[in-house]
Design a protein that fits this description.
Strand content of chain B: under 5%
Oligomer: heterodimer
Helix content of chain A: over 70%
Shape of chain A: globular
Number of strands of chain A: 2
Largest interface: A-B, 40 and 34 residues
Structural class of chain B: mainly alpha
Largest sheet of chain A: 2 strands, antiparallel
Distance between the termini of chain A: 56 Å
Radius of gyration of chain A: 22 Å
Chain lengths: 509, 69
């Protein structure tokens, strides 16, 4: 075991644990109300929102998987950068409307909005289930981040003991999330982000210098990986564009946005959050630094690569480049980095289940207090599910499901995002489009054996490889529009719209 | 407080620039001109992270409503 690294690692972890429990007293609210527990009372200002969203959107898994993809696939893996660039103009324009209508009508989840806008509990259920399905494997994957760094610290055990650190970390996380709700990840995010910035800034000064500069690093990249191959362009573009459309639809992103204290807080953050994208861009380059450092050939890392594949590239690079105590800091950044999104995702899932399934279908007359209590319990169940998933099943299932989750979540775009702008779309048209998009997207992925979300669309003699989520969305939109035209012609009731035009501009007084 | 501006669309049009700049791949899928050993493909995209932040900031300020009048 790497003792200095482990000491620093566990000290930082303990600090975060204390903070997580203290968070319940921070900006104290009535935690028996779902909007207090699950949205922090919609009171987070610019700085807290910056930390929370930054800690929440840029997950530990992202920080492991993006450089792993660059390490393995080269330039194609860099699609994450244009993705995060164009995501923010979208958030700038769209998110204030969502915030306003949710603020005006007391919506806590995206499905709440869809229900109110289209008077369709069934469509809301479809949206809620999709969001839950997309989020669960994402939570599980956050655990992979912890698993990889614990293994890299050299902490090993036999049988179930091997998973003990993971189980302990998650029990602690579950306890303070139950207790403090969204306030816990908001507070921990401050530490997480500080440690991540320190790690990346240190790495960008230390590692290229050790490797003889960026010229040497890029010279070590095999030429076919350095730029996009001719056939990769459409995949790169559709992955970036499709992912940026999907970003806001993820429940953890929506929860972070709705927890802010106003429209302008969100817009201000679209100018500030790219600081994290810059981190992500640098971290993506770590993939090439790992190539240049030949960590894949080093015998001391062979075991790690065998077990975790390319996901081990960045931990190996850190172990090779940093003094032992700083390895502890860097690994803590990844492990704590897993806790923030895992907490927000489980809270968002709990909000969805409680609002759109429990209160809608099981206990319509439940009190606010009962609603908050159920959400707390569900947040525990969700985390337990993720834990069992990652401990009991091969990791590849979580990875495949998370890829599928991205395809699925984009199918809620017409109801959630177009719905913010127009009421013209018919509720049953939206439901039909959603069903077609989900089926088609899943089928496209199945043709690759669920290994990839890239599907070659054939247009006559032309074959265009691209992100299956986007192809499925096109079919979804076509069915939604045709369905709307048909249902309107048949005069099928479109339902009442409980929102008013001014709701979409409401702001904190 | 004056009324909320409901038509900031002219300013929002500025936000289309990053889409063209980052999704028109043939423009930047090249090695030269490289800077400090970093190929164009990579530093161009990293530069756009900064530019999109600036653009969002400009649109934010330009669409600011005047309070307290």
């Amino acid at each position: 075991m790497n003792v200095p690294a482990a000491v620093v690692f566990f000290t930082l972890f303990a600090l975060v644990t204390v903070l997580g429990f203290v968070a319940a007293r921070w900006r104290r609210g009535d935690l028996d109300q779902l909007h207090e527990w699950g949205l922090g009372g919609r009171r987070f200002g610019t700085l807290v929102t910056w930390f929370l969203l930054g800690g929440d959107l840029y997950t530990a898994y992202t920080f492991i998987a993006v450089p792993a993809l660059v390490y393995g696939a080269g330039a194609l893996g860099f699609f994450a950068v244009p993705f995060t660039i164009i995501a923010y103009p979208i958030v700038f324009v769209v998110a204030p409307r969502l915030w306003s209508v949710s603020h005006a009508r007391g919506y806590i989840t995206g499905a709440d909005f869809v229900r109110g806008r289209f008077q369709s509990p069934l469509l809301a259920l479809a949206i809620a289930l999709t969001a839950l399905l997309a989020t669960m494997p994402y939570i599980a994957l956050q655990l992979v981040g912890i698993q990889v760094v614990v293994a890299a610290l050299g902490i090993e055990g036999q049988g179930w003991m091997a998973d003990l650190p993971l189980i302990v970390a998650f029990v602690i996380l579950a306890a303070y999330t139950y207790n403090a709700g969204l306030r816990a990840p908001a507070m921990i995010a401050v530490v997480k982000d500080a440690v991540i910035y320190v790690t990346v800034i240190a790495a960008i000064f230390v590692i290229p210098a050790q490797l003889g500069g960026f010229g040497k690093i890029f010279a070590a990249v095999p030429p076919p990986k350095l730029l996009l191959l001719p056939g990769q362009t459409s995949t790169f573009v559709t992955l970036a564009f499709g992912s940026s459309l999907a970003l806001m639809l993820y429940p953890h992103a929506m929860t972070g946005l709705l927890a802010s204290s106003g429209r302008r807080v969100i817009q201000r953050n679209t100018a500030l959050l790219p600081a994290y994208s810059l981190l992500l861009g640098i971290i993506a380059l770590f993939g090439y630094m790992a190539l240049a450092a030949h960590v894949g050939d080093a015998p001391e890392f062979a075991h790690g690569f065998q077990q975790y594949g390319a996901n081990y590239a960045v931990p190996a690079l850190f172990l090779r480049s940093f003094p032992s105590w700083f390895v502890g800091v860097a690994f803590a950044a990844i492990a704590i980095g897993a806790l923030v999104p895992a907490a927000v995702m489980s809270i968002a899932s709990a909000n969805l289940f409680t609002r759109n399934i429990y209160r809608e279908y099981l206990r319509p007359r439940c009190t606010d207090k009962e609603e908050a209590r159920v959400a707390k319990i569900v947040s525990l169940v969700v985390k337990l599910g993720a834990l069992v998933f990652i401990v009991a099943l091969p990791q590849k299932y979580a990875i495949q499901l998370q890829l599928l989750g991205g395809v699925w979540i984009l199918q809620t775009f017409p109801a959630m995002i177009l719905g913010l702008y127009t009421r013209w779309l018919h509720r049953w048209g939206l439901l039909a489009g959603w069903a077609v998009g989900m089926t088609l997207g899943t089928w496209m992925c199945s043709t690759t054996g669920f290994k990839s979300t890239t599907f070659a669309l054939r247009l006559g003699a032309l074959s265009v490889p691209g992100y299956a989520a986007l192809w499925a969305l096109l079919a979804n939109l076509a069915v939604t529009v045709l369905g709307t035209l048909a249902l309107s012609a048949l005069r099928v009731s479109p339902g009442e719209d409980e929102t008013h035009p001014e709701d979409y501009f409401s702001d904190r007084a | 407080m004056s009324g909320i501006r409901r038509n900031p669309w002219k300013w929002h049009a500025l936000l289309l620039i990053p889409f063209v700049a980052t999704l028109w791949v043939p423009f930047y899928d090249r090695v030269e001109p490289s800077v400090a050993g970093i190929p164009f493909f990579y530093w161009y995209l990293l530069l756009w992270i900064v530019l999109v932040a600036v653009l969002n900031g400009v649109v934010y300020v330009a669409t600011r409503e005047r309070r307290g009048e």
